Amino acid sequence: MGFSLLILAFILFIIADVIIRFAMNKINEKKIRKERETILTEKIQVDFSTEAKSLKRAEVPNPKAKILCVDDEDVILDSFRKILVLDGYSIDTVNSGPEALNLIKSHHYDFVFTDLKMPEMDGVEVTKAVKHLRPDIDVIIITGYATVETAVECMKLGAMDYVQKPFTEDELLEFTKKSLIKRQDRIQKQLKPRVHITHFAEEKVKFGEFAIPGGVFISEGHTWAAVAQDGSVKVGIDDFAKKLIGNIDDIEFPNLGMTVSKGQPLFTIKQGSKTVKFNSPITGIVAKLNHELKDDLHSLNYSVYEKNWICTIDAEKLDVELPQLKIGKNAVEFYQSEIEKFIKEMKEVLKDDTKTDELIWGELQNLDEKNWYYITGEFFNK
User: Fold this and answer.
1) Does one domain contain both 156 and 71?
2) pTM of the entire structure?
3) Fewest beta carbons less than 10 Å away: which of 85, 256, 340, 354?
């Protein structure tokens, strides 16, 4: 009886805790909304000599994003302000393109939403100018049904997307949310990567970083090797290769029992109709194949090390060949030099001098077959 009462009391405590948390969240949401409604009614003192004559500003604490809206119709700008400020965005609005360009020279925005049809300076010109002055700002076109074709043309000039008017509150909120996710995803992919040694082979690695587990050897052809106590060596594809190749559709394993020399082809990675061969980091006999990995290739997106080895080799010249591989500080320095080389090679392949010194995860996926085999040959067939 006493035990049953204890269980009942515990359940009631859990229920009460959930109810209290839910109520507190609702109270907090109402408080935040009230603060944002107040922001919409406040008059902000603006120095028009350095800002813009038609500027209306609504700033919220810790905004999801900072947005500049440009439209010659006040009713559209009012809609943007009321809808987006209440959802946690900081909004500046102006009535003309020149005013918008003046603002982006002195203020940081994540997005510029610009109408297509405006006097003095239309949305096409605004898009061109914004992408020229501030290529880091994403441009969204506000368009009517009759001007969708022109909006698509703006996207060719660098605009991220377009939103059609008239729009409902839910439509604008959903569109802005998706645009922000797209922007954040792109920025994360373009962050210059950091290379570091992890203490554990399956330690979680932040997005935008390359990992090399302590005690793991790296070959010049971007395979890894980990020596077991019995002298056998697990081999797999390293973090550099996986993250730049992107999706892996299949792995062609070596034959069990085959003898392979250091530098000879060991296994093949497949992506669609394209392939890349990886050479063995050591000499020996293929003793085991990791068939479980072939059934769960998606796991390579989380870690290429530890349980995601491709094969095991009974090494024959370990004392001679192991010192030729990279480990620790030498492996980090090797990665850093390979990153610089990769960025340079991609600029030449894409014939794009404007390409920034940044890596994009899965960048090789977008190459045609000719350039795919050139780049993979330069980095992985070693």
Assistant:
1) yes
2) 0.54
3) 354
